[in-house]
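EI: anyone free to look at a 541-residue chain?
SC: sure, send it
EI:
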Amino acid sequence: MSDPEFSLIRDRWIEALDLEGRTRQESLRTVFANSHELSSLAGELPTQAFAILRLLLAVMRRAIAGRAGPAARVWQELWDSGTLPTDEIDAYLNDHADRFDLFDSQSPFFQVADLQAVNGKVSSLERVIADVPNGEKYFTTRAGAGIDLLEFAEAARWLVHAHAFDPSGIKTGAVGDRRVKAGKGYPIGLGWTGNLGGVFLEGATLRETLLLNLVLLDPNSERFATDDLPAWERAPDRAQVDPSRVPVGPADLCTWQSRRIKLVHNGSHVTGVVLCNGDALEPFNRHRLEPMTAWRLSTTQTKKAGHTRHYPLSHNPRKALWRGLAALIEQVAVTSRIDERAIAPGVLEWVSYLLDEDALDPAHPIHLHAVGMEYVNNQSVVGDVVDDTIGFRAALLASDPAIRYAAIGAAQTAHAAVSALGSLASNLAVATGGEGDGARERASERGYFALDLPYRRWLVDLSPDTELVVCGERWQCVVREVIESIGDGLVASAGAPAWVGRESNGTYIDASRAQIWFRARLRELLPAAYTESVDKKEIPA
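SC: here you go
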């Protein structure tokens, strides 16, 4: 049986949303050409769209590699043109067309042509599809149905995703891989992108999104290495890996071959997969090359290793993005020694640089998009998927931190007020003879949920012309209105035993005292909300 033809350049396989929210499929060539009329990438999972976005950025980075001049000027020319440089992109894709054939006999895209399992078997498609972990139905999109066949387009999407997000754990042993023991490939870690608390910036169109994330300078304000090549510009992979190979730059990391894969087909559909270990990569200290995550300083690992170690800052799927916003933006434009602090995502530092160079309008609206996977069972199974966005004006990322500090301060105010609400709920529970921790947690989650939309609305209104003090006072009024209302409801529903109260750790607690303490704490946290001079009529709805 001859191999079918499926060109990722010519054939449509990338899912995207148009400006009306309708799903359509694009090829590599058309997704760039039509990027101004697309709102975003789509896919079976948010992580799939993120992996494909990184692939597109690798193509763009290499397509414009020949452009000379200061990085800000190169970028601004692209931004102001109204379209992407499709002539350069098309020429680049044409030069490497043979490497984008999904079933090429010598160098199939992101695969190893002669890959074979030591046991000679081919695995089912569940091995490459993240929403159906082996032995457990995870997402309801496929519940009740096996996966025997995949269209070539969907198989291509999952292939890109597997290199990026495949869980760790024991893999099929590949013939020719010297690491294999007893026919098994023992764990080497996650697909590279799975290590990240992924972040990227979204504009009004896919074109804007691609350009906002096209970081042209490393943290030292230097161009990335000229030999930063994606997988399709390197020699085709084989089962045996080079253990000494390390990534050179973002194009390399965006297409890092974390696995060795071979798609098996029947001529019209993909029917199985051979999925083995690929290039292992420790996640620490890649911040100079990987701009799409924040980095935390691990004091424990630094002490053990004897030198500074930064690790990707992962997302917490149980917290909304705005609640952890400070960890992502607080270090933007900070110039102190990085071996003593956390590091902001490179994409945010890049926009800060563009603002300083007057290449981007500070009032331009953008969204920070967080995406990632949480893994469980020693990182061998997908536990949860993170997908959240928050909008603001580009000025939030300027080197002048005033707006950024206002946003962080407002979130901290919300955290403190929710903590006061949690204490009220705990005290009411104790007053009735109950357990306080559960009541605290439930009330806190309720408070955060109630403040979620108001904070997002408040943040997007911050602009270079905003009177930050007045805006902060209005936010305090919003927080008081929301949290006080929930607190009053908790007191009203506490029941008669709470008004009688009881002693706990030497302090008598009843509903009346709990409410007094709660109100006093809110007055302390939200002084502007209890001052008549604040124009409460202008509080955002």
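EI: The longest strand covers residues 381-393.
SC: 👍
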